[in-house]
Amino acid sequence: MSSSVLLFSVYVSTCWIILSTTTRFYETKRFSKVIQTLSSLLRQFIIFALILFAFIGFFKQPEISRLDLTKYFFMSFLSVSFAKYLLLFLLNKYRKVLGGNFRNVVVIGDNQKTNQLIETFKERSDFGYKFLKKFCVEKENFTLNNCFNYIVENDVDEIYCSVAELTNKQLREIVNFTDNNLKVLKFIPDNKDIFTKKLSFDYYGYIPVLSFREIPLDDPINKFVKRIFDILLSLFVMVFILSWLTPLIFLLIQIESRGPVFFMQKRNGLDYKEFYCYKYRSMKPSTSSRQTTKGDARVTKIGKFIRKTSIDELPQFINVLKGDMSVVGPRPHMVKHNEDFAQKVDKFMVRHFVKPGITGLAQVSGFRGEIETNKDIINRVKYDIFYVENWSLLLDIKIVILTALNAIRGEEKAY
């Protein structure tokens, strides 16, 4: 391969990745229309054409002509367009014919817009929504508690509300319920008060629908980028650190306390699913599930050191490689503690919209270790929710660097 062709390949590939990530080009929504997909293609390739023909001006390569670039442009446009529409077609058929990838939905409100939306759900099975029930707010026997019980009992995924029929108090109750029960909340807009929130606006057919919370890691490209970052960093740590550190830690642990080198404990992860979290054992074998406190007699001498430097957390890179955790995310708590916090702390469950992490924004912001007061867990949840709603790869890298620096310096609450 000539140097010109190699340079062109690297240039085009890099620019396409950056452009596609910025424009969310590969995002395919359930309700995407043919015309919307075409609009997305045209916007993408207009910008791509400018980037493509800028190659000659930037690098002045005599081996690649404008005619070659024109041919490459049209081949790229046709192949990507075909792939894009084929994916859209296959996903629609998968939902419509095979009945897969459906989400259960309920509608709160009884008016023209809610009825139109329900008809859309029923007629457009290719959207992948299974309508279960409509709750009429004006009926005498309507209560939000009955509505919430039905949602939980029937495994409802998404709730659509007509804000025109609900009071501000009812809206707050619905928002709190969805946050604390991992349900997706969307509004059929009519009330100006709701527009003070940062909302995502889409059309289902001709019905406007607002999504209450936009989570960056729901985007397939963002999810893929984060997963690649997790895998690469995990493999590096396992090959160059855990491979020699684990036997050494095992020998040091045996001097004080006979038993396994790893300690496994059930934690709640993505969508509140349970998994076994790995750590180097830093305490004497015990059946107690209480949090570690300062001066805890269960902690061994070597355990104090590896906890102070956060070395005990390194085996969680195994969890990351397995897909149970991410390098960065809300720290997972023990199942018993999660149950307690979910009852006491508002919006605690929002943390579980993403994978838990070995480290997190709350931890590098001073809220790691023992929960001594309600303020500790409330502030931890605030930082976790900010991370969930504002994720970026640069934020992950910043948190990893701060975590490494804190481990070198040692932290006050690392005991």
From TrEMBL:
Membrane protein topology class: Multi-pass membrane protein
Keyword check for DNA-binding: no
Top class in the EC scheme: transferase
Keywords: Membrane, Transferase, Transmembrane, Transmembrane helix
A Pfam family hit: CoA_binding_3
Similarity section: Belongs to the bacterial sugar transferase family.
Transmembrane segments: 6-26, 38-60, 72-91, 231-253
Name the UniProt record assigns to this protein: Undecaprenyl-phosphate glucose phosphotransferase
Localization: Membrane
Bacterial sugar transferase domain sequence ranges: 226-407
NCBIfam families per the UniProt record, alphabetical: EPS_sugtrans (TIGR03025), WcaJ_sugtrans (TIGR03023)
EC identifiers of the protein: 2.7.8.31
GO MF terms held by the record: undecaprenyl-phosphate glucose phosphotransferase activity
InterPro entries named in the record: Bact_transf (IPR003362), EPS_sugar_tfrase (IPR017475), Undecaprenyl-P_gluc_Ptfrase (IPR017473)
